[in-house]
Design brief:
The C terminus is likely disordered. The chain is α/β, with parallel strands linked by helices and about 350 residues long. Helix 2 packs antiparallel against helix 3 and helix 4 packs antiparallel against helix 5. A hairpin with a 4-residue loop joins strand 15 and strand 16. It has 10 helices and 16 strands. Strands 6-5-4-7-10-15-16 form a 7-stranded mixed beta sheet. The protein folds into 2 domains: about 110 residues, Up-down Bundle (Four Helix Bundle (Hemerythrin (Met), subunit A)), CATH 1.20.120.420; about 200 residues, 3-Layer(aba) Sandwich (Rossmann fold).
């Protein structure tokens, strides 16, 4: 099953706001409808947003009445979510093909889609090998994760959850510990749904319990995704990631970031320069329309936090592993080819 794809002249995507109760495919035929789907999180996750951005440019090229309207639609799409660098990257990649017309734009967008599928397989192979290396005394690993980084966050397979899936397929996963991920419960709604579908052993964990469980030895590693990785390795990810990194450091547990090369933004020097998206207060004061807080309660709702690079053991991409704990950096470890022995990739 693909999270997002181009079907018969439009975009079809899983509406993630309806999961786990209903699995429904939304059809998107205008750029503004796609922007709405992105902002309400019907489609989310850095890799999936990169593909959505590229396919959205194809929509603009095929549906807008003129160049001015097309370019304005592309600009609106690019700015739909500021923290996730993949959205802007996907838009820019496809927009660079606009002078050649719609066929060239669509071809590039579909190439980005296919590249994501291959990249997720590669990240799973690299990441599983690294976790096995970091915990050599364990035949099967307990792995903690936050938010949703599986196929729903990509096209087919995922980043951090793709690593967990690879471990499971190899019989090397003891348990996945999925943080519930407040306020929108992507862990409870989406990650648990995906883990159940793959038949992996898992338990849900309240966000505030994560660091304590790490201190008690419940996990051999923490793996997270990323929405933007700065040049120094500072990583923006779903709110709650920083707390897990602090808990992992205190407990001596490896903390690993898994994301495609396209999530690395060398033009952003440090995490301090990453724009953090503020989400509506209603996401905290209500749950699916049920009021939790008193009327008039104000809320502060950052969608992401930034984990400093000195708390990160390693960054795994589809082309390399950067061991920050050994002094390696994004600038000193060059990306290799995507081919990984035993992955089936070439």
């Amino acid at each position: 099953m693909r999270t997002i794809d181009w079907i018969n002249g439009g975009i079809e995507l899983i509406d993630q706001t309806l999961l786990p109760g209903r699995l429904e495919i939304a059809r998107i035929e205008t750029v503004d409808a796609l922007i709405g789907a992105i902002r309400r999180l019907a489609v989310r996750g850095a890799p999936a947003l990169g593909v959505a951005g590229a396919l959205g440019v194809a929509l603009a090229a095929s549906s807008e009445p003129g160049p001015a309207e097309r370019d304005a639609a592309v600009a609106r799409l690019r700015a739909a979510r500021p923290t996730a660098v993949n959205l802007a990257w996907g838009v820019d990649q496809a927009a660079a093909c606009l002078p050649g017309g719609f066929p060239g734009v669509l071809a590039r967008a579909l190439e980005i889609r296919d590249d994501d599928v291959a990249a997720c397989v590669s990240m799973g192979v690299y990441g599983a090998a690294l976790l096995t290396e970091l915990a050599p005394a364990r035949d099967r690993l307990a792995v903690m994760t936050v938010c949703n980084t599986g196929g729903l966050a990509a096209v087919e397979r995922g980043t951090a959850l793709g690593v967990i899936q690879t471990l499971h397929e190899r019989g090397a996963l003891a348990e996945a510990l999925a943080m519930e991920t407040r306020p929108l419960l992507q862990g409870a709604r989406l990650t648990a749904w995906e883990l159940a579908r793959m038949g992996a052993p898992y338990r849900l964990v309240a966000d505030s319990a994560g660091p304590f469980l790490l201190a008690r030895g419940h996990a051999d590693a923490v793996v997270i995704g990323a929405d933007r990785i700065a040049a120094d390795g500072d990583t923006a990810n779903k709110i709650g990631s920083y707390a897990l990194a602090l808990g992992a450091r205190r407990a001596g547990v490896p903390f690993v970031v898994v994301a495609p090369e396209t999530t690395i933004d060398m033009s952003t020097p440090t995490g301090a320069a990453i724009a953090i998206e503020d989400r509506p207060a209603g996401e905290i004061t209500e749950i699916r329309g049920v009021r939790l807080a008193p009327d008039g309660a104000a809320a502060l709702n950052p969608a992401f936090d930034v984990t400093p690079h000195d708390l990160i053991t390693a960054i795994v991409t589809d082309r390399r592993v950067i061991r920050l704990d050994r002094g390696e950096t994004l600038a000193t470890v060059s990306p290799g080819s995507r081919a990984v022995e035993g992955s089936g990739l070439r």
